[in-house]
Specification:
The chain has helices at about 1-5, 80-85, 95-100, 145-150, 170-175, 210-220, 235-240, 250-260, 270-280, 280-290, 295-325, 330-335, 345-365, 390-405, 435-455, 470-485, 490-500, 505-520, 520-535, 540-555, 555-570, 575-585, and strands at about 20-25, 35-45, 60-65, 105-110, 160-165, 180, 200-205, 230-235, 265-270, 370-375, 410-420, 420-430. It is of the alpha/beta class. It has a 12-stranded mixed sheet, with helices on both faces. A hairpin with a 2-residue loop joins strand 11 and strand 12 (about 420-430). Helix 16 runs antiparallel to helix 17 (about 490-500). It holds the Pfam family Amidase.
Length: about 600
């Protein structure tokens, strides 16, 4: 403790007004954080704006970054002490980190990654592997193991990682948290150590879908838009055959949740391998040039991903490895050198595969579809087990992970409780560029997925009495359907039923207000919106609906205030902007 107290506090400019950096390095042997952190530091956000302006979007949240992201004054370690020894401290902070700090979040540390971020096991002999808090005798998954562990242990609200061949998705699934891999190229990789430039995608971990969504909106710099629900949810049946746990443990959770929220008509089943075989002709050429016969299409796709990963990794870091000759784990070293050099024809073919599968998935899912696959084929393997390096495990895992990696599509890992005391998860994939839609879908489905996960895992629980909160949600969903069908009075009755069952949910009051507006019940609408705002001061729809009600009641000053506050909460909300400006001009 004395040595820690003696450390210097250093103020470093980030190029962002009002951001301070205060660093305090901790010994790597400290294990109270489950071995997640390499360094503790503090990047403070700028001061919050004065009212009535809304606070920064990430105010109050803390986060950590995998040791692949540059932070001024620190050597970005890449999971290896020899890399630290042979590289200088970063002279600037990665833009992705800066955007989050500028958005109101506080960065508190750098976390452990696999050796050279190359593996998916989460084990690193150089820094003591992070402990999986959800299953301490099991691997945490990698490459960004420390980031997942930091979120799972509630040390931070969210954490950043890089997903090349599963680096975010795998540890999220194994540690029981949400993990989002963004569409390739949608978030800048500047200031991040590259592993495989064609595959690397920025990703992040969170414990709840609201935080996942908030972080995504800042990183992706998304303007305001109405939330969209999926119109098709496609289960890749052949992918689920790769599971080594009961298939129904995952699929039934998704099916029951989708049926409850959207109706059975949205659900579809697809043999994904057969679909890809017909839509990605370059895979056949790949099989021919590599002299592989009777290999499943999913394996060919996995081999293409691994070839590209190894080729680009050695292009980026081969000279350093040959010069420094770092001590690399024999398993990782053998994987790096497993395949010969690629010819220009090979690279051209791999790029053709990437382009064709991206188009194929886009054609399958369009703008409103979700592909459902297992995240990983099994529960986390035991620490030090031979399963991790077995050909069967590697083949199954890479077959699943390659779909989003090689296509560049976005994918989210969603935890679904436990099977035999180990975390299990499912993954949703959307088309390339469908990140907002995927974030919306997770936010919509998460609560229901957790509910049915408990029921499927424990069939006896399905016989338990449905709680009032669950009955309230059912009434609300029926009210939503009645509203869509323009049955206003029926919708009001159903929302009222939901409120009687659970009177602390802002959405129920706000939704009933929308129905009251349709039948001219402006006083009731204003009253409901006021109640909703009392329960949730950031309920934008409640401010918009109360503004409309007040305008109809002649309270123009109150209406302008509501529209303006909605605009503060969502600066890009066109409805709020137009309404406030219209009233301002009319009553100047």
């Amino acid at each position: 403790m004395a040595s820690q107290a003696a450390n210097l506090w250093v103020l470093l400019g980030l190029g962002l007004a009002g951001i301070l950096m205060i660093s305090k390095k901790l010994k790597k042997t400290v294990r109270e954080d489950f071995g997640a952190f390499l360094d503790k530091l503090l990047l403070l956000p700028p001061p919050p704006p004065a009212p009535p302006k809304a606070p920064h979007p990430l105010t109050g949240l803390t986060f950590a970054v995998s040791d692949l992201f540059d932070i001024t004054g620190y050597v970005t370690g890449f999971g290896h002490p020899d890399w630290v020894r042979t590289h200088e401290a970063a002279s600037s902070t990665c833009p992705v980190v800066s955007i989050l700090v500028e958005g109101g979040a506080t960065c508190v540390g750098k976390t452990v990654v696999d050796e050279l971020a190359f593996s998916i096991s989460g084990e690193n002999k150089h820094y003591d592997s992070p402990t999986n808090p959800a299953a301490p005798s099991r691997i945490p998954g990698g490459a960004c193991s420390g980031a997942a562990v930091a979120v799972a242990t509630k040390a931070v609200d969210f954490a950043l990682g890089i997903d090349t061949a599963g680096g975010v998705r795998v540890p999220a699934g194994y540690c029981g948290v949400l993990g989002f891999k963004s569409s390739h190229g949608t978030i800048s990789n500047t200031g991040i150590i590259p592993a495989s430039s064609s595959l690397d995608s920025v990703g992040w971990f969170a414990r709840d879908p609201i935080t996942l969504h908030r972080v995504g909106h800042v990183l992706l710099q998304l303007p305001f838009a109405t939330q969209r629900n999926p119109r098709q949810i496609i289960l890749a049946d052949d992918c689920f055959q790769l599971l080594k746990i009961p298939v129904d443990r995952i699929t039934q959770v998704v099916i029951k949740s989708a049926e409850k929220l959207f109706g059975r008509q949205l659900l579809k089943h697809q043999n994904f391998e057969n679909y890809i075989e017909t839509k990605v002709p370059s895979l056949k050429e790949f099989a021919r040039t590599k002299a592989v016969a009777k290999v499943p299409t999913s394996r060919l796709l996995a081999n293409a991903m691994l070839l590209l990963q190894r080729h680009e990794f050695l292009q980026n870091h081969g000279d350093w490895i040959n010069t420094v000759k770092p001590a690399i784990d024999p398993v990782i070293s053998s994987q790096m050198c497993e395949n010969p050099e690629l010819t220009s024809e090979d690279i051209e073919n791999l790029n053709a595969i990437r382009n064709e599968i991206r188009v194929a998935i886009g054609s399958l899912l369009k703008d409103d579809g979700i592909l459902v696959v297992p995240t990983m084929p099994s529960v986390p393997p035991k620490l030090g087990s031979k399963e991790i390096t077995s050909e069967d495990y590697q083949n199954r895992a890479s077959s699943l992970l390659s779909i989003a990696s090689i296509s560049g599509c976005c994918q989210v890992t969603v935890p679904l409780g436990h099977h035999e005391k180990c975390p299990v998860s499912v993954s949703f994939i959307a088309r390339h560029g469908g990140d907002r839609f995927l974030l919306d879908t997770v936010q919509t489905m998460y609560k229901s997925l957790q509910e049915y996960s408990g029921i499927v895992a424990d069939p006896k629980s399905s016989k338990k009495t449905i709680t009032q909160e669950e009955l309230a949600e059912i009434a609300k969903e029926k009210g939503n359907q009645a509203f869509k069908e323009k049955q206003w009075q029926k919708a009001i009755g159903l929302y009222s039923e939901a409120i009687k069952l659970s009177d602390k949910t802002a959405t129920y009051y706000s939704n009933r207000a929308a129905a009251y507006l349709e039948v001219g019940g402006f006083l009731q609408a204003e009253e409901d919106c006021t109640k909703a705002i009392t329960l949730d001061k950031k309920n934008v729809k409640a401010y918009l609906r109360r503004g409309t009600a007040r305008e109809m009641l002649g309270d123009y000053k109150g209406a302008i205030e509501d529209f303006r506050y909605a605009l503060v909460l969502e600066p890009n909300n066109k409805r709020a902007a137009l309404s406030a400006e219209r009233l301002r001009k009319a009553f100047q």
